[in-house]
Amino acid sequence: MNPLKFRRLWTFIGYSLVILVIVLSLSPSLPPPVNFPWADKFYHLLAYAVLMLWFAQLHPKYRYRWLACGFIALGIFLEVLQSQSGIRIGEVWDATANSLGVVLSWGLAVNGMNTLIYQFEDWCLKPGNEN
After folding, report:
1. Contact yes or no for 49/102 (Cβ under 8 A)
2. How far apart are CA 114 and CA 84, in angstroms?
3. Alpha carbon distance 129, 39 (integer Å)
């Protein structure tokens, strides 16, 4: 596989997503854009699934375990901080949803979804794709 041509950009976007998750996790409670049963848990799962899948694009498979451990630890740590803040309530089920999102994306990445950014770059940089 060829190296990413815009690796710095993809890494910057990835860390921006991490910062966004941290800021949203520690800011005062915001109503979810769409409200349905377990919406909060779905958003937690989705956020951590995106983080794990994004960084899986940037790292080799042998690092996935460390990425997963790092994102699971981040999710637990942020829930602990929420419970200590007095502004938000940290929940075990939120940490569980975070962890499940990481594990789901780990599985997707191991099974072939770890080349999406490569495919996007190839598509954008393909000759005749000047739209």
Report:
1. yes
2. 36
3. 39
C-alpha 92/C-alpha 68 separation (Å) is 18
CB 21 within 8 A of CB 72: no
Cα separation, 110 vs 34, in Å, equals: 31
Residue that wins the pLDDT comparison between 65 and 32: 65
**Which range among 8-22, 51-65, 117-131 shows the weakest confidence by mean pLDDT?**
117-131
Compute the distance between CA of residue 83 and CA of residue 58 in angstroms, rounded to an integer: 32
- What integer best gives the mean pLDDT of the chain? 90
Per DSSP, the residues of the chain read -PPPTTHHHHHHHHHHHHHHHHHHHHSSP---SS--TTHHHHHHHHHHHHHHHHHHHHS-GGGHHHHHHHHHHHHHHHHHHHHHHSSS---HHHHHHHHHHHHHHHHHIIIIIT-HHHHHHHHHHSTT---
Residue 84 sits at φ, ψ, to 5 deg, of: -90, -15
Q: Which of 73, 76, 86, 74 is nearest to 29 (CA)?
A: 86
